[in-house]
């Protein structure tokens, strides 16, 4: 039997283009009918590793980090909202929205991998943050999300204090950065080729078709 095409998605939980990119990739996989020929693994990347516990207002954060004006931010949000809607995903931006620390969420995504629920948890975190106005750095939200997809929340949350689990995420982040990954999403195929950004469905279909045919 032919080995599955391994797809590593280097991504952050609070990255809108990561969500759009994955949804487009998922659509491409479905349209090609190759769901059973690919294996997806999410890899950790923190856009804001030094984000404090209390987080930061999204508008302030984007102005500070990228120097964009309110008008530019609004245009960008509108573009993301439209792109999400086309894929059945709701981006609900609001004035008090806060950018939050995602390190704990990444630890839990590593935990979920052992149960075949990594993608499900990733999408649940993304929905909680972007669609449901929830703070995915808070333990109660993490717990609620774990339970919603049928994972053992107490066992999973115990990993947050586990130094080995914390180091695993740090090591993986360093590994991908050492390979030159500095923006997300970066989608890597069989650890050989990669595409960055939320590419159109047609682009993903072309890349996948070529790789599956090899």
Automatic annotation (TrEMBL):
An example molecular function term from Gene Ontology annotations: oxidoreductase activity
Gene3D superfamilies: Glutaredoxin
Any Pfam family matching the protein: DSBA
CDD domains: DsbA_FrnE
Superkingdom: Bacteria
Entries under InterPro entries matching the protein: DSBA-like_thioredoxin_dom, Thioredoxin-like_sf
Occurrences of domain DSBA-like thioredoxin (ranges): 7-208
Name of protein: DsbA family oxidoreductase
Taxonomic source organism: Polaribacter marinus
């Amino acid at each position: 039997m032919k080995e599955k095409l391994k797809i590593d998605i280097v991504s952050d939980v609070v990255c809108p283009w990561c969500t759009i990119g994955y949804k487009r990739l998922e659509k491409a996989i479905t349209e090609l009918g190759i769901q059973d020929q690919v294996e997806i693994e999410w890899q950790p990347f923190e856009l804001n590793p030094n984000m404090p516990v209390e987080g930061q207002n999204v508008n302030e954060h984007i102005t500070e980090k990228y120097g964009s004006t309110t008008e530019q931010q609004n245009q960008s949000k509108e573009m993301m909202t439209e792109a999400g809607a086309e894929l059945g995903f709701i981006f609900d931006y609001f004035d008090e929205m806060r950018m939050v620390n995602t390190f704990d969420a990444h630890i839990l995504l590593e935990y979920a991998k052992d149960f075949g629920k990594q993608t499900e948890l990733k999408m649940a975190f993304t929905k909680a943050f972007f669609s449901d106005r929830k703070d995915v750095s808070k333990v109660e939200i993490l717990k609620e999300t774990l339970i919603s997809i049928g994972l053992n929340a107490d066992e999973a949350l115990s990993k947050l204090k586990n130094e080995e689990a914390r180091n695993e995420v740090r090591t993986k982040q360093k590994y991908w950065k050492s390979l030159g990954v500095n923006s997300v999403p970066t989608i890597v195929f069989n650890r050989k080729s990669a595409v960055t950004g939320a590419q159109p469905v047609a682009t993903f279909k072309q890349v996948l078709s070529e790789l599956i045919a090899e």
